Amino acid sequence: MSARNGLDFAAGLFFAGLWSATTGLLFSIPMAVQPMKAIAAIAITEGLTAAQIVAAGASVSAFILLLGVTGLIDAANRVVPRAVVRGIQLAVGLSLVEKGVQMVAGTRAIVAVDGWATAGVAVVVVLFLANSRRVPGALVLFFGGLGLVLVKNPEVVRSVSAGVWLPRWSPPRWDDVRVSFPIAALPQIPLTTLNSVVAVCALSADLFPDRPAQPRRVAVSVGLMNLAGAPFGAMPMCHGAGGLAGQYRFGARTGGSILFLGAVKMVLAVVFGASMMGICRAFPASILGVMLGFSGIELALVARDQTSRSAAFAMLATAGVSLAVNNIAAGFVVGLGIAFALRMVPSRGGTGDS
Fold first, then answer.
1. Distances from the Cα of 258 to the Cαs of 85, 214, 244, 261, 291, in angstroms?
2. Among 8, 24, 56, 123, which residue has the fewest nearby CB atoms (within 10 Å)?
3. Mapping DSSP to helix (H, G, I), strand (E, B) and coil, where does residue 153 land?
4. Hey, is 209 helix, strand or coil?
């Protein structure tokens, strides 16, 4: 979005760090802060302006904040069957795996600085350090990727310059809201509601049963951080099940990890600003793809608890439709209808459907 739509890279990095640090203080789990994916995809394909991107994020956040403040998000969380939530998580997890493989394949190289061989080494590193509590695999891959950037694109590193960047007041106009709402905000609302609130709370209960995140608190968090950042051109952000799974997969267990991550982002934004974008764009896609793929597997694994026939049916229908049409909202509607229909069918003894 920074390269194609003119979104302020430094503002995006700074506020992503600020909200990560705030999230680390508010939640005792490694709750991720990540971009709103539907808005990002539509912005790139439709050529939205930076102001329209920000306005779309603010519109979504106002709706999610309303759900949180009124408590309607708790009602939605109670009504949605667990099998449908698992279907959403399975779909998001598998889509992350698919995207990770596509990133590696997109390098179009087997033996190169950035290619299949590099991805193979990254996979070995992740598996070897999977159970290590002293050496986080993600940090090894991150610094290894930076080393490859130095080897492949040394001029990119030299282009990074120190300075002082501070947030600038640049609120979107009403016209930006009017144009972006039907195009980008409406598709993002169901994704944020389901994946960034309902699914992430369900995942937190699986990973941290002693301290699960509460839907109302998560919804208010998503709403406030974007409404506060929009006047400064901040990138639309949310929480997400995929992000939480990734943080957990690579060793994060408390809010302290997210607090540290946020502090680093803020320092980099203030000191280096937009000059950091070159390094981000040059980072090896093969390593990013491996990290994304393992994060997706971690998220998809939570679906293994749907062992009864009816629950598995609803879960797989939700995931299948979501992946087939690339729309979580469509998968949710179909899965919800199937789950409620199956509840109306009388169970038969000895079928294993209890």
1. 25, 18, 10, 5, 17
2. 123
3. coil
4. coil
C-alpha to C-alpha distance for 130 and 144, rounded to whole angstroms: 17
Locate tokens 């698919």: which residue?
98
34: helix, coil or strand? Answer: strand
What is the length of the chain? 354
% of residues, the chain, pLDDT over 90: 63
Give the Å distances, CA to CA, from 28 to 137, 170, 203, 246, 310.
Answer: 22, 33, 14, 16, 34
Instruction: Return all residues near 160 (Cβ < 8 A) that are at least 6 apart.
Output: 272, 275, 276, 278, 279
Cα–Cα distances (Å) from 289 to 23, 113, 292, 295, in that order, read 26, 14, 5, 10
Up-side HSE of residue 50: CA atoms within 13 Å toward CB?
19
Q: How far is Cα 52 from Cα 180, in angstroms, rounded to an integer?
A: 6
Sign of CA pseudo-dihedral 73, 76, 81, 87? negative
Tokens of 54: 């920000």
User: Please, what is the average pLDDT of the chain?
Assistant: 90
Token match 């919800």: residue? 336
Task: Give the DSSP per-residue string, 246-298.
Answer: HHHHTT--SHHHHHHHHHHHHHHHHHHGGGGHHHHHHS-HHHHHHHHHHHHHH
Residue from 63, 20, 53 nearest 236 by CA: 53
* Cα–Cα distance measured from residue 185 to residue 36, given in angstroms and rounded to the nearest whole number: 10
Residue 351's pLDDT is what?
Answer: 45
- How far apart are alpha carbons 239 and 218 in whole angstroms? 8
